[in-house]
Amino acid sequence: MPVHRINRELASSRLAYASTLLVLLLSAMPGSTLVAETLDEAVAQDSFLLTLADALHVYDIDVAHNLNARDVARGRIQRPRLGRFPDLPVNSLPLSQELAVWEGEYEEGEIGAIAILGNGPETDSNAVSFLHDWLRASGLDRLFVSFHSSDLDAADKIASVAGAYGFRILTLHGGESPAMAGNLYATAAQRLAIDSRAARRYRSEVTEFSYLGERVRRNSNSLFRDGGDRGNSRLARSEPSVFLKETLGGEFTQSTIREIIVPGGVALGETATLTYTIASMVYGDGVITLIGTADEQFVLPQIDTATLRALFDFVERSEAIRSDAIVDIDADGRVKISSALRDTDPGFDIVHADTLPFEYVPNLSVTKSVIIDTGVDWYAGRTETLAFQTDFEVRFLSADNMRIAQTRVALEYQYDSQSGEVSYLDSWGRDRLRLRDNLDYAGLGEGMRTIASYAGWIGLLRKMREEQVPFLQGRYEFLKLDKSGRDTPARY
Prior knowledge:
Elements: H1 3-27, H2 47-58, E1 62-64, H3 70-74, E2 81-83, H4 96-107, E3 111-117, H5 127-135, E4 142-148, H6 152-164, E5 168-172, H7 178-186, E6 190-195, H8 197-201, H9 207-211, H10 232-237, E7 265-267, E8 273-274, E9 278-284, E10 287-292, E11 297-299, H11 305-321, E12 325-329, E13 335-337, H12 345-354, H13 357-360, E14 368-380, E15 386-399, E16 405-416, E17 422-428, H14 441-447, H15 449-466, H16 475-479
Parallel strand pairs: 1-2, 4-6, 7-14, 8-14
Antiparallel strand pairs: 2-6, 3-4, 3-5, 7-12, 9-10, 10-11, 12-13, 14-15, 15-16, 16-17
């Protein structure tokens, strides 16, 4: 069914509710005695839910600011409820895996959605103009309600009420217009859901449905320990040893890692410095462009889009589990790699580079090598394209009798994206004098070139994430890119 037919059916549905809505709107005026059925006190802080609460009450639909509040989640559902999740705050956009799961269940007709746009009156009824305006609206104006297919009647009533209050509405269900639905979900700044008995019974991997019926942790407003994401503990167990590279310490600081196996491999976690203020990030025609606050366009160096997509996923995964570790190869040659980079070309390149340090420095009595970035600086290049420099270190580690990771030797390098050159800078560590006089510093640095390049991009993506730079234009197409490449070996 084309989207414009869906809109016409929704319009007909609105007419069926028109007389009731007139009464509702009049009763919501000052002096009205109608009381909304709100399931938690926090709804008073939510202007959208507060606006709809009285009208939805007449349709036997409740509202809840926090669907995971203990009293709300454990209470028996008498009727459908519209609400939010504390672990999905404004601008917590879906990631690629979430998008893939949501689209899959939508295309099967198991779930539907209401896209609610609150930035002014509708000027055109077609879906294309809706999406155009949606992608240019602020996060406060892009609301997305997922619902189970059996709750379509409640969804239509919610859409009608929201439309009567001046919101622009697009309802999608039955698996129709999957690209439109996926694009809206991928860029939804506020993710709500309809909670019902059917939705609770529905076994789904979709984030919103998996949260239904779950209660926040005691003395917390999150479902998870320390506000983390669902499954992070399980996810971390399947990743390389979880650690942040700064816990390794430096030349004049001690490691803060206590009583763990000495970490090794590759760990990239720097946030880039960038002198320009970026207003948005845009993807199109196979490239990402940064848009400045004065509408200036900053062109980035050429990079394979599948590689960039893999690095983007790593940054998101790294933030989720609080770990900079990408790959680790144990003494038996078994490879552990971040799932975001598994079976990708950059993942393959990084695994290969991780095997090189001991080929150049074979004479140290150490157990691990680790390659880390120490600085990423983006700047205006000689052409209109931005360029970057990456400072990185190749470290050789061992553990003391307290199982604390100690750097015995660190070799410092710098990579420049314009020239492509890797320069050896210096070395430090208590065993630096044990390095051989004929050590091929240049050869080792050259072997780290790809890692240094990836570190520059990871640093930039971290910068965009930390500064919450909007990435809406082309986000859906970018998240749909196939990042698969060479298989990651199980052993090396």
